[in-house]
Every structure is written in structure tokens, then in C-alpha cells.
Write a structure and sequence with these properties.
Order of helices and strands: HEEEEHHEHHEEHEHHEHHEEEHEHEHHH
Largest sheet: 6 strands, mixed
CATH class of the largest domain: Alpha Beta
Strand content: 15-25%
Number of domains: 2
Number of helices: 15
Shape: elongated
Structural class: alpha/beta
């Protein structure tokens, strides 16, 4: 479990990974600067992606241990906020809740033995309590994280109710969200197709709204460039109207279990402003809802940069290389159109780019690069490293036109 957790961590940790092990159980966990909870659970070597009895018992055990060790009735969410953990157990004749064996339903470890819940909770309380006494620096780091989460949760509570009421009212009377009929948090057969396009401005959102499949595709229209939330606390999600409306549209306030759209697609122009908006939205997701990225829900919409056509054929090109090949194919003198913004693409054409042949670039995390490092580099202070990167990779408009 220790090696597995090390390999999956894409973030700097607040303290070294805690590794607890006995004959039939092994646990590893740490906390990171991110939001959310991340778990990897196994039973007899089987990856239980939906958790089950053993994971629920571990989550309970870690809260009980923290409360007893620190002598305070901490809220469970504060204890577990930002945790990354892995748990593996071995039991006889495990009972799973589905044929795919992704969720453990067993209540017992061995015949005539303790319940599985009690076995795991007792192990965590004993082993982790010993570890905390032997490692005071880790104990202090964890306590600081719990207190930080508690402080932030209480700060948010003061504005949360008002913000949610405002969001509900806006969703009823504002056309910012053009919803679809099918959602990911239902049992509908097409729920995997549920998609939310996040667009910039009225022209782009108008084209997508007209072209979309109203059954499975929704549109959320931004006013302009969203706030750079790098380094800010989650309180900003409720204070900033646009972020709060987006959070409500996605239904992720309490986690991603009830996420309304399987695919969250950032659809911005392929220019400097559009790229900046992409970066600001990705900062928002990585800063506050990294599980959306970790669970492969976030994408970038690829739309054509050029249209090359003659009287017989039309070719849409997504890169300069594709444009050159299209010109050669449709020679001698094809008509070449460069799309500088999504609003320049007609709704009839847009249908081609958000249908079955839609090109989506998934947003993924490189296991070797921490989220915090990426955010620091791209959204933090203008460091010499970033300046050098921009200078080396900058291509001005005239150069692009000449390619």
C-alpha cells in the first residue's frame, strides 16, 4: 500500500506517509494541500473501486482516533479533508455487493471472529494512536490541517446559505445554464453521454446552444474571464457568484458522488484570451475540486482552426499540418477560412464538431508533477522560469498567419 500510494500521489504531502500493517490488514495515508478525499481499497488483492465495509470502517476509525488523541470532538469532514489513503485487507469468503466485485458487503472477517467493522476500527485506533505518540511532528502537522479545515468550514458556513439561495434563484431566472434532460447522477441509459460545455461570451454559447443535443448536452455561459483563484480558500467559491453558480450546476458542493454531468468540457476560443480562460477554469477545478480531474471528467473541446474547401469538398483542419495537407489535396486554389473564435462558426457547422466525431482532449495529471507545483508555476508570481518558457515558445499573430 505504501508503494501504491507513493505512485499515485501527484501532490506534495503535509507529512510523510503513515504506514500501518498487521497480518491481515495494511493501511497507508497522508494529507495534501488539496481539497477532497482520495481512497484506494482492496480485498484479497481485488481493487474495490466503490469501497464498502472496510473503507467505511477505516474512515470511521481515523476520525475516532483523532478525536481521542487530540481530546476534541472534531467534525469528521475536518479530520478527513485532503486525505489520500490506501487500505488492503484479507478475509475469508468475502461477500461483494455486485458481480464486478467493486464494493465489499461482508460484515465478518472470520467465522466466530469480530465484525469486520470492529476489527478495522480497533486496529486503526491502536496502531495509529501508537504512531501519533511516537511521531509528534506528524501529529502536530495533522492537527494543524484539521484546525485549518475547521476554520475554513466555519468561515464558509456564514455565507453558504445565502450563496446557495442566490444560486437557486439565478438558476431559475438566469439563462447562464441551458440544461439538458439526461444527467450523470441518474439511472438513464445515456447518462455517460451527459455533457456540460463551459463557454465564453454570448456568441460562442449561442452557437453551441443551437447546435447541441438537448437530451445530453448542456451549456454554461461565462460572463468573461473568471477570477484567478490560485492561493485562495474555498470560501471564494461561495463569495464569487460565477464560481458558485458553476458549482451548483455541476452539483459538486458535497463531493462528486452526485455529479450531474459525466463530461465537463471547456469550450473557449483558440486565442490568447481563450487560453487564459481555460487556465483560470483549470485552476478553479484543480484548486477546489481535483477529484473531477483525477476521475477523468474534465476535457478541452478541440474545434477547427481552418476550413479549406473547393466546389467539391470541405476539409476542417485542427492544426497547421492538417491545413497544409488539405491545401495540397484540394489544389490548385482552394478557399481558406481561418476561425479566430467559436462565434465565427455557424450553428450548422458546429453540429459537426460536438456530435459523434467530437474531438475532446482529456485533462490529466502527470504523476510526477504535483498539483501545487503546476499551480505555482502557471498561476503564481511571474517567475524567471515562466518568463523564459514564454519567450522560448511565443509565436506572434503574423508568424501564425504565414505558416
Amino acid at each position: 500500500m505504501l508503494d501504491l500510494l507513493k505512485s499515485h500521489l501527484s501532490e506534495e504531502t503535509l507529512y510523510p506517509i503513515v504506514h500501518l500493517k498487521d497480518k491481515d490488514i495494511e493501511i497507508a495515508f497522508t494529507h495534501t494541500p488539496s481539497y477532497g478525499e482520495e481512497y484506494y481499497s482492496f480485498v484479497n488483492g481485488q481493487h474495490t473501486t466503490q469501497g464498502g465495509t472496510h473503507l467505511a470502517a477505516f474512515r470511521e476509525g481515523i476520525v475516532k482516533t483523532a478525536r481521542e488523541f487530540y481530546g476534541k470532538e472534531f467534525d469528521p469532514s475536518d479530520v478527513r479533508e485532503s486525505i489520500d489513503a490506501a487500505i488492503s485487507i484479507r478475509i475469508q469468503e468475502p461477500v461483494f455487493e455486485s458481480q464486478t466485485k467493486t464494493k465489499l458487503g461482508s460484515q465478518n472477517t472470520y467465522p466466530n471472529g469480530p465484525s469486520l467493522r470492529n476489527f478495522i476500527v480497533d486496529f486503526v485506533k491502536t496502531a495509529l494512536d501508537n504512531y501519533l505518540h511516537k511521531n509528534p511532528s506528524m501529529a502536530e502537522a495533522w492537527k494543524s490541517k484539521i484546525l485549518q479545515s475547521e476554520k475554513e468550514r466555519k468561515e464558509i458556513a456564514g455565507i453558504k446559505k445565502l450563496a446557495n439561495e442566490r444560486a437557486k434563484k439565478a438558476n431559475l431566472h438566469n439563462r447562464k445554464l441551458r440544461d439538458c434532460r439526461v444527467h450523470f447522477n441518474t439511472k438513464h441509459t445515456d447518462k455517460m453521454l451527459s455533457t456540460l460545455f463551459i463557454t465564453e461570451g454570448d456568441s460562442a454559447s449561442g452557437s453551441i446552444t443551437i447546435s447541441r443535443d438537448v437530451n445530453t448536452q448542456a451549456v454554461f455561459s461565462l460572463k468573461g474571464k473568471p477570477l484567478n483563484c490560485f492561493g485562495l480558500t474555498k470560501k471564494i467559491v461561495y463569495e464569487n457568484e460565477e464560481f458558485n453558480l458553476l458549482q451548483n450546476a455541476l452539483n459538486i458542493e458535497e463531493g462528486i458522488e452526485e455529479l450531474r454531468y459525466n463530461n465537463i468540457v471547456i469550450a473557449t476560443d483558440a486565442d490568447v484570451d481563450g487560453m487564459h480562460i481555460r487556465l483560470l477554469l483549470l485552476t478553479f477545478f484543480l484548486q477546489f475540486f481535483p477529484d473531477l480531474v483525477k476521475n477523468n471528467h474534465v476535457y478541452i473541446l478541440q474545434t477547427p482552426l481552418f476550413r479549406v474547401r473547393n466546389k467539391k469538398e470541405t476539409i476542417y483542419c485542427y492544426s497547421d499540418e492538417e491545413r497544409v495537407k488539405a491545401i495540397e489535396k484540394l489544389a490548385p486554389k482552394p478557399e481558406i477560412t481561418r476561425f479566430k473564435g467559436l462565434g465565427e462558426i455557424s450553428p450548422d457547422e458546429f453540429k459537426l464538431f460536438i456530435g459523434k466525431k467530437m474531438r475532446l482532449e482529456p485533462v490529466t495529471l502527470d504523476g510526477e508533477a504535483s498539483v501545487q507545483h503546476l499551480l505555482d508555476y502557471y498561476m503564481g508570481k511571474n517567475t524567471p522560469d515562466r518568463q523564459d518558457f514564454i519567450i522560448k515558445n511565443l509565436r506572434i499573430e503574423e508568424e501564425l498567419e504565414a505558416v
